[in-house]
Design goal:
Blueprint lengths: L2 H8 L7 H4 L7 H10 L2 H5 L3 H19 L11 H14 L14 H11 L4 H19 L8 H12 L9 H18 L3 H6 L16 H7 L3 H5 L2
Helix pairs in contact: 5-7, 7-10, 8-10, 9-10
Length: 229
Amino acid sequence: MTMDERDLDEFTPDTASPASAKAPAGLSRREMVGLLAALPLTGALEFTPPTLERALRAANESRAAADAGGAAAPLFFTAHEWRTVRMLVDYIIPRDDRSGSATEARVPEFMDFIMRDKPDMQIWMRGGLAWLDLGCERRFGATFVAATLPQRSEMLDAIAYPAKAASAMRPGVAFFNRFRDLTASGFYTTRMGIDDVQYMGNRMRTGWDGCPDAALRKLGVSYKDVYGS
């Protein structure tokens, strides 16, 4: 392990002080849906429905202010952190042919509210963003937002997959996985995210024709396997 790797290994987001955390300054959406299907959002991040409701209201108010030409400056994040957060969430959930990106769904605004509503998460967030910048500076001589696209991709590849990550990257892995969950919470509780997973809700149906053939083929099962001929 190099000296730089030891520095990264010792700089853990959860133990960084607020002062040091302010220093210098993926998965696909389909994979994210699979993750969320197995792990309830509110339970995974200890958010109660009222907390999510307040956060979404704050994000919507920010959207309304932006649409009206007003400023939507963050109340928790610094200007540099804000640029990093906005870039990072769009790496996790980018725009595709099905829906918009995390920033278009106002996920950064959601996070800004959560950080103020959940003070115990602030050191983790600030420390993690600082760790990400430190890692990029060690590797590339630039912060995350100032790095090139290939360099940012290389850094994220090093922390996005826990099973493949080097031991020196453990703090970054812990930060990124929690940040990814927070991004998913913000996105998939908005109308854009709900539409993305094609959630129908409790709607009356006049009949049931069974699971679509395309879905059965994808799962590799058939009604014959279950019920016989």
